[in-house]
Amino acid sequence: MAERVLVIEDDRELGRQIVLHLRRAGFDPTWWTEGKTIAPEDAAGLSLVILDLMLPGAHGLDILRDLRARADVPVLVLSARADTMDKVGALKLGADDYMTKPFWPEELVERVRARLRRPTLQRDDALTIGALTIDRARRAVQVRGRAVELTRVEFDFLAALARRPGAAVTRAWLAEQVLGPEREGSERTLDVHASRLRKKLAPEECIETVWGIGYRLRAEPAA
Amino acid sequence: MKLRLRLALTTIAVTIPMIVVLVLFDAVARHRAAEEALAGFALARMQEPGGRERCEADPSRWGGEMGPGRGPPGAGEASETRGRAASDSRGRESGAAGASDLRGRESGASDLRGRESEASDSRGRESEASDSRGRESEASDSRGREAKMGPPLDDGRPRGRPAVLFAYDAALRSANPAAPAIAEPLAQAIATSEVATSEVAISEVATPEVATPEVATWPRSWARSWWSAEVEVLVRMPWEAGPCARVLAQGSTVPGWLGAVLPPTRIWLAPLVALFAAVLLAMGPIVGRIRRLTEAVRRSASAGYASAVPIDGSDEVGELARAFEAAGREVRAQLTAKDRREAALREFLANTTHDVMIPLTVLQGHLSELNENASAGAAIDRAAVVAAMGEAHYIAAIVHNLAVMAKIDADAPRLHREPVAMDVLVERVLARHRPIARRLQVELDGAVPESPLHVEGDVTLLEQAVSNVVYNAIRHNRAGGHVAVLLDRVGGDRFRLRVVDDGPGVAADELTRLVERGFRSDAARTRAPDGQGLGLHIAARVAALHGIGLVFESPPGGGLQVDFIGPRVCAEAADSPHAAHS
């Protein structure tokens, strides 16, 4: 079932675009064009609120304060002004994030997704990321159900990446996690291990090289 | 109210009550002195040799006015014996001596002097008269005495009515039909004291049981001594027997307003008036200087504080002038600074407008082209769409920079400082630029530490600084290029934010000039790839404001590497709840 997102934005065109892009991204948006208190029955079932600050009716910060008194639904604030007070004030009142206008629609969708992303089930024994299943207790890895034999370093490498799926991590951090601190030429060694690991996991391209940074474990299956 | 008028009114308001009080006090003092003189005179009159005898011999006739020109109190004295006259004369002498003794006592009250000398005068004349009647041999003595006492009598000063004496027995009955009845307060007073006066005796003899009503008479008695010239005392004689055990003495104070405490002549008014005039005269130059200063300040203010205020003197007025001059200097400095800022802002606005108008025009061109192509049914020109998006993104960056620059220029010292989560900030900057980087086919990635990293600062400024560096790396890159943003903890309590790209880079000799505000080549104005605008300048200004170092380097593989290195907030401060996302 699509997640419900309440959009409070007074500008007709901008509101229409936001709603359009949210709907395309698979959300179920509700659009209010003026500021008013979010009643408990409205708040129920909402996954996220996108709140403009400058609104006719009620100021966005007042709506936020009122909402925070009753509900924990995530709030993404839209701010047109480059005013630090507005942003800090919104965050202090309990906003989860803010975006400064202008923004690209895909940036908005990405931020909404990031806000709604459920934390991965971090059970000690098993972890599923895309095509990968990593069993940390038994130190076993499966690719689409196929077991893959990994060395100790290879497994640690994969487990370290799996701590933050989708995020790039630096070679230096990986080397420290996998090979231990202060080893000569450890980053080169790391690349060798990465290369072997990739071959074992093929044809899935789970591990990406990130230019200037290091590696990343692909969170979604490759398109 | 004008200064001079205020001063004059204040002086008058202070002086008049003071004079009134002094005059009132003077009247009371004169009254007191007159009472004491009368009492002394009555006592001396009776105690002089033969005084009592004369009274007791003929109490019905003794009494009446004792002053000069009205004859002696006892006209029958003339028929008395010579010896008696002689002793009388001697007695009068001693009486006169008593009177002069009195004078000594009353020397403080000049009012008395007249009365007292009048009394001795009358006595003198009296004795002279009896002398001339009785003993010729003593006449010259008397005359000499008279000559001695005479001159003070004729000093031309006003005198009170001559004293009137009446004798009473211990029960306050008088044999003399002319004697007035003794008023009740006096009768009460004499019962317990040697001398009873009509006004104050009552309280002098106050006994506890009668004290209460008498307290109320005090103001009345004072008031009476103020407006009434009449003085009345009842004197107890050293004996109780006979018709002359009490003597009532009546008289008056010296006419006129003053004389007891204040000098009787009006000369004392002269210094008062002189003082008053001196105060007003002294005010003259001060008022004049203040007026001139006011005029000068007005002139200076109307000329935009361009002219100086003249300073004369080292007193308070001079101080005021100096204060005005200092204030004027401050205003001049502020105005100059404001003018400078305004000029800079105008120039900045003109440049920015120029910078915005060009991409806007290009954007319009792209949109127009897209529209024409769509009308013609042609396939969408993807390159034109991407270019249009690039222009829009560029415009947004310029406008953000304009706002940040205005903020830095306006109130750099009053930045909003809060712990800012740099990892979240980096994510936000990446999210802002990722859509356009994707369109430009520049790979944009970032890596942040696993746990939050906080920096103390203004989130708007820091974000714009990082954003400018990242966008700079994207915009000056080429399709297939890369931009990486790395946030790390370094050296314990510091952070390093590195933005590295594999674009064309910057020549070594230009690295140090990157952050100059004026460093915009003609190529930059026309948006050539090597044009550096305001963005890096803002990054440098923001970094400096936050105590963050900004280092530009050309990495070995080409491109540009920019490092922000500065202090980070240590764990405990970063734990504040709102800081996590800021």
From TrEMBL, chain A:
Keywords: DNA-binding, Phosphoprotein, Transcription, Transcription regulation, Two-component regulatory system. Residues 4-116 form the Response regulatory domain. InterPro entries: CheY-like_superfamily, OmpR/PhoB-type_DNA-bd, Sig_transdc_resp-reg_receiver, WalR-like, WH-like_DNA-bd_sf. Residues 124-219 bind DNA. The modification 4-aspartylphosphate is found at D52. Residues 124-219 form the OmpR/PhoB-type domain. Gene3D superfamilies: 3.40.50.2300, 6.10.250.690, Winged helix-like DNA-binding domain superfamily/Winged helix DNA-binding domain (1.10.10.10). CDD domains: trans_reg_C. The keyword Protease does not apply. This is Response regulator transcription factor. It comes from Nannocystis bainbridge. The lineage of its organism: Bacteria, Pseudomonadati, Myxococcota, Polyangia, Nannocystales.
UniProtKB/TrEMBL annotation, chain B:
The chain crosses the membrane at residues 7-25, 268-290. The keyword Metal-binding does not apply. It comes from the Bacteria. Residues 284-336 form the HAMP domain. Residues 50-59, 79-93, 102-158 have a biased composition (Basic and acidic residues). It is an enzyme of class 2 (transferase). Its main location: membrane. It is found in: Membrane. Its EC number is 2.7.13.3. One of its GO terms (molecular function) is kinase activity. SMART domains: HAMP, HATPase_c, HisKA. It catalyses: ATP + protein L-histidine = ADP + protein N-phospho-L-histidine. Residues 48-161 are annotated as: Disordered. InterPro entries: HAMP_dom, HATPase_C_sf, HATPase_dom, His_kinase_dom, HisK_dim/P_dom, HisK_dim/P_sf, TCS_sensor_his_kinase. Pfam families: HAMP, HATPase_c. Residues 64-74 have a biased composition (Gly residues). Residues 351-570 form the Histidine kinase domain. Keywords: Kinase, Membrane, Phosphoprotein, Transferase, Transmembrane, Transmembrane helix, Two-component regulatory system. This is histidine kinase. It comes from Nannocystis bainbridge. The lineage of its organism: Bacteria, Pseudomonadati, Myxococcota, Polyangia, Nannocystales.
